[in-house]
Amino acid sequence: MATEVKSAVFELPALTYSYEALEPYIDAQTMHLHHDKHHQTYVDNSNATIAKAPELAEKTGEEILANLAAVPEGVRGAIRNNLGGHVNHSMFWSIMGPNGGGAPTGPIAEAITKTFGDFAQFQERLNDAGLKQFGSGWTWLALSATGLQVLSTPNQDSPLSQGLKPIICNDVWEHAYYLKYQNRRAEYLKAWWNVINWAEVNKRYEAALKK
Predict the structure, then answer these.
(1) Which of 68, 94, 120 is the endpoint of a domain?
(2) Which of 48, 64, 157, 168 has its CA 20 to 30 A from that of 79?
(3) How far is CA 20 from the centre of its chain?
C-alpha cells in the first residue's frame, strides 16, 4: 500500500479487482469515478501539500494522521482532509472484494461476538452510525485501548487522529453510492456487507492487536 512507503510522494493504489467485480452491490461506474477521480484528487492534493512541509516527507500517511498536532498549522487542514481521504480510501478498497460478504470468521468474529453480542447486532450498530452521520463522512469499527468500538467521523477525518486503530470502514460520502442508490443511504449500507473481505479485516485486526 502506497501509504506504507516512507516517501514524500503518495500514489493511488491499484485495485486488486476489476471495476465491475463488486456488482451488483457497487456498480462499475461508481467504482471507476470513486477510485480514479475522487481518490486521485486526494493523492494529488496530498502530494502538493507535503511539498510545502518537507519535514513530513519521511513519515507514512498513517503516522502523520496519528499526530496531527505535529503538522504545521498552515497545512494541517489540507493534510487532515486530503491525506485523510487518501488513507481512508486506501483502506476502503482493501477490505472489499468479489465473492465477499457472509458472516465473519476467525479472530474478528470472536471479538465482534464478545463486544456486540452477535454479528447481526454489530451490523445494525455500524449501519446506524453510517445512517446518522450527517452529511459526508465515514463509519468505522476501530480498536481502542479498551477494545472494539463503532464510531463515525465527518468528512475525511480518521480514527487514527483519535488514537484508535481502524479495522473496518465504510464510505458514506454521496459519491460512494449516489449513482446507484440515490438518496437511499440505508439501502447502500445494507448492500455493502456483501462485498466485505473478512480475510483482510482479520489481517488488520491481528496487526492492530500487535501494535
Answers:
(1) 94
(2) 168
(3) 20
Q: Inform me whether the pLDDT recorded for 6 exceeds 80.
A: no
Long-range Cβ pairs for the range 6-12 (8 Å, 24+)? 6/58, 6/59, 6/60, 7/57, 8/47, 8/50, 8/51, 8/54, 8/56, 8/57, 9/47, 9/50, 10/43, 10/46, 10/47, 10/50, 10/61, 10/83, 10/86, 11/43, 12/36, 12/39, 12/40, 12/43
User: Is 101 a domain residue?
Assistant: no
Low-confidence winner among 1-15, 26-40, 185-199 (lowest mean pLDDT): 1-15
> What's the pLDDT at 57?
85
- Tens digits of residue pLDDT in 125-135: 999 999 999 99
Asked, for residue 111, whether it belongs to a domain, the answer is: yes
